[in-house]
Amino acid sequence: MHLHAPFSTPRRPLALMGALTLGLAACGGSDDAPSFKTIELNIAHINDHHSQLDAFAATELTLDGVATQVELGGFARQTAVFKSLAGTPNLLKLHAGDAITGSLYYTFFKGKADAQMMNSICFDAFVPGNHEFDDGDGVFKGFLDALADPANGGNCKTPTLSANIVPQAGTPLAPAGAPAYLQPYTIKKIDGVDVGIVGVTIAAKTMNSSRPLATTQFQDEAKAAQKAIDDLKAKGVRHIVLMSHLGYDNDKQIAAQLTDLDVVIGGDSHTLLGDFKAVGVASATGAYPTVVKNKSGETVCIGQAWEYAKAYGLMNVKFNAQGSVASCAGKTQLVIGDSFKRKDSAGAWQPLADADRAALVTKLASHANVKVVTPDAAATQTLSGYASQVTAQKAITIGTASEALCLMRVPGGSNSRNTGVAGCETANTLARGSDAAQVVAEAFLRASKRADFALQNAGGVRTPIAAGSLSMNTAFTLLPFTNVLVEMDLKGSEVIAALEDGVAAHLDAAVPSDGAHPYAAGLRWDLDMSKAKGQRFSNVQVRNKTTGAWAAIDPAKTYVLVTNDFVAAGGDGYATLKPVYTAGRYVNTYLLYTQSFVDYVIAQGTIARPKAADYAHQKVITKAGVALP
Predict the structure, then answer these.
(1) Which of 30, 124, 207, 356 is most buried, most CB within 10 Å of its CB?
(2) Are 302 and 363 within one domain?
(3) Residues 376 and 417 occupy one common structural domain
(4) With contact defined as beta carbons under 8 Å apart, do 91 and 44 qualify?
């Protein structure tokens, strides 16, 4: 019997000593066909939870063929799911990035709540997403400190992996005289065999839409990933999992560029892989797992698990005696509660009777798409502590309004929404329309690094703002929804068409919606509502972000518009934007729109009505042909 050196394998040359250490070399057989220990790997994973720690109440799914309201997701349910997998052999628990930004838990706690909830799972690795840098390297470091803090449950020692992020020495993520916060890879022992886990973070998107330090480098994703894989090979590591915060389409592309890659666990695109039509949820045109080939022609298995702690993925990967992937299988499941509502004969949602509820729970036990889960008690208690603090935080003062910001939907319309607000008695007689919507748009423009101008629909702003002190609760009453900001690449002609859509939605639609009326920052116009659609907007101008000078919009030029995701997806009649959104000509910042307004108020200290020249509406003629002052 003699030992065959693994460096003779045509797949992955390895150092002999590393192979001996791993016990991967086998006895007997041909010199040029060494065999390796066959192993099986199970990977449980989530991604893009974006500080969405609470469950989504009253979510409508189709269960057993019937429209049913359920409680969907919630991080405490994820904790229970991962704990239930504790007996699964050879298990890796991975989080593929964008843990933070997107809810009040981030607004108030800057990642501490997320870290403590993540520690209730104890992930084996975490890759930073682009949104980890939304408030800069320092805030990201604070989140990682919380993740490692024993007082925060931080005994998991979860490594943070990104091979293509290189912070400058002496900056928060690479402090002088201390270990760097980011590592390119980690190695986990699985069934006696070392498995390498490499991280990679989307580069251009992070640099362009988040706020990393200018000194923090974001290297080419594929080159950095390959270097890390090669370094692992040199250490004798044979099986490679890439944790990718690049997006599903990019995952398929990068897999084809890399040698010696076996698995990709992804994030960023919020992709739900698999077929969820049976439960009434639209999913991607991709299987779970998606199977592609790497640069060497070997099998690579790709998985991603949607968003907001609504789902988890569980992938099973089998490796053959040649060290390659023999097969992969698995599924993504939505995690739901065990209480259900269905419509009665009058169309009202009613809870299921106990017997019907129990029967449905039993039937769902074998369902491929959903998993009924009771939230973990300890994680629920942890979260409740933060939830009570959120309530208290809402009372905190964030700034002052030096004058009333009146609420209008359409200039010249009803003034009823301003009843009792001093300074707004004649707001409906003025061309400028809604001060509140105008200021919200200004806040959005400040929040976006890329945008040339911002758009806000009138109905998305719910209350006027009286002069005086502003609290967090003021902001969340003004902007009560869970919308996020989206940056869209639009031709000037498309921008004008979208403005026409917003006005047509209340002037021409069979069911008019004055909530669609457009307000903007960095964009202004003359509006004649007595004319037909397509002729109502004139003298549309764009404000230069650097000089402040106004110039006519160029119909052929591409601009970046920031707006809320409801409008971006074509809501409120914005038909021009819908195909742009569907075609992917946008970047979802995942910045909670209310948080963006709060940040604006805090930065300004005192807010007021914009200068007259900065209002979106410069000249307005009403539908009746009356020119407003």
Answers:
(1) 124
(2) yes
(3) no
(4) yes
Query: Which domain, by its residues, includes 555?
Result: 396-628
**Positive or negative CA dihedral for 204, 127, 323, 188?**
positive
Q: Which two tokens mark 236? A: 């004798």
How many other C-beta atoms are found inside a 10 Å radius of the C-beta of residue 180?
Answer: 13
The answer to whether residue 12 is domain-embedded is no
Q: Model confidence over 123-180: pLDDT tens digits?
A: 999 999 999 998 899 999 999 999 999 988 889 999 999 999 999 999 999 999 999 9
Strands (DSSP E) contained in 352-440 are: 370-372, 397-401
Alpha helices in 456-610 (DSSP H): 472-478, 492-507, 565-568, 577-582, 593-604
Number of domains the chain contains: 2
CA distances from 512 to 189, 436, 616 (A): 62, 22, 22
Burial of 175 (0-12, 13-18, 19+ CB in 10 A): middle
DSSP percent split of the chain into helix, strand, coil, nearest 5: 30, 25, 40
Cα separation values, 609 from 339, 409, 433, 465, 540, Å:
47, 16, 11, 11, 21
| Residue 237 CB-density burial (10 A; 0-12 exposed, 13-18 middle, 19+ buried) | buried
The CATH code of the domain that includes 603 is: 3.90.780.10
Q: 279-302 pLDDT, tens per residue?
A: 999 887 899 999 999 999 999 999
Asked if 626 and 458 count as a contact pair (C-beta separation under 8 A), the reply is: no
The residue among 117, 182, 90, 579 whose CA lies nearest residue 381 is: 117
